[in-house]
Amino acid sequence: MSSRRLVVMRHAKAEQDGPTDFERPLASRGRRDAEAAGAWLASQGVAPDHALVSAALRTQQTWESVASGAGWTLSPDFDRGLYAAGPESALDIVRLVPDSASVLVVIGHNPTMAVLAQLLDDGSADAEVGASMAGDFPTSAVAVFSYDGAWADLGEGTARLEAFHVGRA
Question: What pLDDT tens digit does each residue of the chain (169 aa) get?
């Protein structure tokens, strides 16, 4: 089986207030940062054929800006479950991705995305890359993994961290 790529991303900077937490929009800085993250992903050759995005407004808007910055036209799956998911539940959602998908982008919330990225990491990354992700996982943080296997078999310590980047405009 050919190697797959998995991008784990935390949504961009959101406004402090919204009608509800679920409906908090991105701040204008968040839109710019997410677009910068998208441009960086495109520069890394990331071209997703599947995307899982929390159904919250700020994650939907993060996807729009990332896709705009990267030049992607893919329609994502907006998943309500990702909004409240803990790391194990998020991993379960990823395991349901069709095997036809080879490059997957997941955009969600912290602490889940940070913990998910740490959980997947097999520890074989370049030391500098590994150290960069070991710190904070701020808004617009992006972890790019390679993974060999079926999505259904994705588990703890099964993916190699290839790159870590924080989108900033």
Answer: 468 999 999 999 999 999 999 999 999 999 999 999 999 999 999 999 999 999 999 999 999 999 999 999 999 999 999 999 999 999 999 999 999 999 999 999 999 999 999 999 999 999 889 888 887 899 999 999 999 999 999 999 999 999 999 999 8
Task: From the options 3.40.30.10, 3.90.660.10, 3.40.50.1240, 3.40.190.10, give the CATH code of 4-166.
Answer: 3.40.50.1240
State the Cα–Cα distance between residues 9 and 11, nearest whole angstrom.
Answer: 6
**N residues, the chain:** 169
Work out the angle at residue 149's Cα, subtended by the Cα atoms of residues 97 and 164, and round it to the nearest 5 degrees: 80
In sequence order, what are the beta bridge partners of 50? 104
Domain residue extents for the chain: 4-166
| pTM, two decimal places | 0.97
